[in-house]
Amino acid sequence: MDDKFMLMIPGPTPVPESVLLAQAKHLIGHRSGEFSEIMAEVTAGLKWLHQTKNDVLMLTASGTGAMEAGIINVLSVGDRVLVGSNGKFGDRWVKVCKAFGLNVDVIEAEWGKPLNPDDFKAKLEADTDKTIKAVLVTHSETSTGVLNDLKTIADHAHAHGEALVLVDAVTSLGACSVPVDGWGLDVVASGSQKGYMIPPGLGFVAMSDRAWQAYETSNIPKFYFDLGPYRKSGAKNTTPFTPPVSLFFALQVALKMMQDEGLDNIFSRHAKLQTATRAAMKGLNLPLFAADEVASPAVTAVMPQGVEAEKIRSIMRKQYDIALAGGQDHLKGQIFRVGHLGFVGNRDILTAVASLEATLAQLGANGFTPGAGLAAAQAVLSA
């Protein structure tokens, strides 16, 4: 049936109808007073969401572009950096850093396991000459459904005294609390197609005072992603280059929806959806890839036994019009991932779980009781 497609992946995420309709408005000039009013409103909303008093800049880019912008604006060629890698996106930041000539020291953990803050502590404490210029961490590792202990890692960086804290918060911002000022985060990158509930196309970079100090000495070449002009233009509620005006219409509506819901309610909703999804998988005897203690509020990774992950995804897509995400790199074909991020509610979880139960039955999966997953999810959602 047409127009019944349902996204249950960690991005792009479902977009509310009011946000979709906002993009259908006639375009306005991005140098107009009307656009400046929208720019002022969304800038204030972004600061609210990031829990910061400092700059949150908007780029026409993906989350990867936002993180690249953060790196090249506060670091210099040859700088030593610590990069946490326990999944595909941690690996990506290693590649980006190396592409710009940084001296990369990788702190690794097995995919599906969290980064160990003590590993960062040891490296930072051993750096008596203060050669480490930055610590880079992926907060919510989308590829595995693991939430890293960002606060503790940031605390170790602060104890070092020199290292900046750069964060990929692409699937954590809007899903759980990321108090940028409270945790002393220097550069925080995110993307519009996740917790912001709008289509892809906007990247966001939060910058601390310490980050701007580092900007003054950064020597990595930059032009379009030079954040200085964005800051200067942003102070006048405008942009240095042509922005995606329709996405600003969408962002205005989405941020208003989020403010009406309230930060605490947003975070508790995601926590409940996460718990319900994981309870359902356990009820269906489907092994979870990450432990409950380190689970991401944005996505749950599942490693089915006795039935192929890709067959599950195929039937869910073809017969129930529900998209689940697959595994990446060496996990391709071994896991599937259920997104519960952004514009997702109780009905979405129950629908996905019921369809998954029907899919497992069709594939002849053993070891599960029909209805057990739905009952487990409902028990959480009705509590």
UniProtKB/TrEMBL annotation:
Pfam families: Aminotran_5. Keywords: Aminotransferase, Pyridoxal phosphate, Transferase. Residues 27-328 form the Aminotransferase class V domain. The keyword Transferase applies. Its cofactor is pyridoxal 5'-phosphate. GO terms for biological process: glycine biosynthetic process, by transamination of glyoxylate. SUPFAM superfamilies: PLP-dependent transferases. This is Alanine--glyoxylate aminotransferase family protein.
